[in-house]
Amino acid sequence: MRCGWLVLAFLALGCGSEDAPAKNAACDNAFLCDAPLLIAHRGGGRLAPEETLPAFDNAAALGADVLELDIHSTSDGELVCLHDDTVDRTTDGSGKVHDLTLSELRALDAGYHFSPDGGASFPWRGMGVTVPSLREVLRAHPKAWVSIEIKQSTPDIVDPLLALLDEEQAAGRVVVVSFFDEIVQEVRQKRPEILTGMALGEMLTLYAATDETEASYQPPTRIVQPPSNVVTADLVARANRLGLRLHAWTVNDRPEMEALLDLGVHGVMTDDPALLGEVIAER
Length: 283
Description:
By secondary structure, this protein is α/β, with parallel strands linked by helices. The chain is built from eleven helices and nine strands.
């Protein structure tokens, strides 16, 4: 995957409280609005244990427009919010998510490794923070816009996800993204009304387009989420011409936030939603 982003960067250089509502009153889908979205990456992992209910709660209280999370499936078929495919980095346990049941995951301390001061303190240890299921997050924030990244490469996660979104009546307030083309393509095939983001291969095609080929290029979706280091003024202009919404990740310092907003990106993902909120409010 790292090689893919290197190619993407090369091509980009060559291409010329309550959950927050959509900021644009005339826009009924936050992901498609013009106003820059504050997207809490992993719930804002600089401020609270990433991908946990305390993180998502904090992000919502700070006014985040979108809660961003990642999902894997457990050995008993439940969808849970974790970035890595193992629990080692973020909990006091070890092992692959796919080898553990939801019950086994719930027994782990998901706040164990979080430290706001570089390891001087671990304020969330022993505080009962657990790995949440996707269902729990959707129910805890029933009005939130949610960006769901499917981390695993096997398409058998798609049907359980679609069923869950239907059960929770959440299909209209999410965008489903993945690095893997076959994953997002299956979502589109089965549920074309659900908003998806471009996968890596699709982004490479977008970035490789020239001024001559752009006119005939048909975007597979309206959402593109590239890493911030490949975002240029030309790319933002191209996105606007094609009717795309560009959300850049992951940005945690003020100068880069300001630079991206100056370029006119439609959303910024950050681990520090408090800081990004300040930057947006000052504009």
